[in-house]
Amino acid sequence: MYTSDSALRAFREARHTFIAGSRIDMGALATSLGVDRTSLFRWVGNRDRLLSEILWSLAVPTFDAAAAAAAPTGAARIVDVLDRFTADLIEAPYFRAFLTREPARALRLLTTTESDVQSRFVDRVTALVDAERATGAFDPSPLSAEELARLLVRISESFTYADLISGETPDPERARATFEYVLRPTTAPLLPTGVR
C-alpha cells in the first residue's frame, strides 16, 4: 500500500474513478493532480500496480464484512464467508464494469501471479482456515490450510469470472453449493483424532 501523501492522493482519486465505474487513465489522472506522468508513475507505479492496489483495497472491507456476518464456527463459517464475499463481488457494479471493460487485464490482475491480488486473497483464506483449525472446529486434513485456501480461491474465481472464463452467468448460489460440497459443513462438533 502507498504511504507518501502524494501517492495516497493519487490512489484515492483513482479509486474514486474506479468505483464510479470509469476507466483509470494515467494521463488524465496526472493532469487532474497537476503533475506529469513521470511523477505519477514514481508515486504509484504503473497502471497495473495501481489497479491491483485499488482492487485489493476494495476486497479487504468486502471480505471483512463477509466475515463479520458469517456463521460462528467451523466449515459453516468458511462457507459463509466465501459465499458472501463471492456474491458481493458478483453483484458489485464497479467490479462488473471493470470486468466488462477490461476482461483480459482483469483476469491477469485477479487470477494470476502477475499481481499480488490473488496471493493476498489466498493469505486471507488461509488465515480463515487456520483460525477455525485453531479452535478445533475444523480440520482441513489431508490438505494444509494453504492448499485448501488455494482450492477455495480457485472455486471463488471460477464462479466470479464465469462469464469471462466459460461464457456462463456468474452464479453465487452455485458457488455456495460448491463450497459446501468441498467443505461438507456439519452441525456435529469434530472429535479429537483417534476418538470414535
Question: Can you put this structure into words, describing what you see?
Answer:
The protein has 196 residues and is mainly α. The protein folds into 2 domains: 1-45; 47-183, Tetracycline Repressor, domain 2 (Orthogonal Bundle). It has 11 helices and no strands. Helix 8 (117-135) packs across helix 9. 31% of the residues are buried.
Descriptive labels:
196 residues; mainly alpha; Tetracycline Repressor, domain 2; 2 domains
Low-pLDDT runs: 187-191
- Average predicted local confidence, pLDDT: 93
Task: Determine the CATH topology of the largest domain.
Answer: Tetracycline Repressor, domain 2
The SS-based structural class is mainly alpha
In DSSP terms (H or I, runs of 4 or more residues), the helix count works out at: 11
Which percent range fits the helix content? Answer: over 70%
% residues in beta strands = under 5%
Number of strands: 0
Put the structure in a nutshell.
With 196 residues, the chain is mostly helical. The protein is built from eleven helices and no strands.
Secondary structure blueprint with pairings:
Layout lengths: L4 H15 L6 H8 L3 H8 L2 H23 L4 H18 L1 H9 L1 H9 L5 H19 L9 H16 L1 H4 L6 H12 L13
Helix pairs in contact: 1-4, 2-3, 4-5, 5-8, 5-9, 5-11, 6-7, 8-9, 9-11
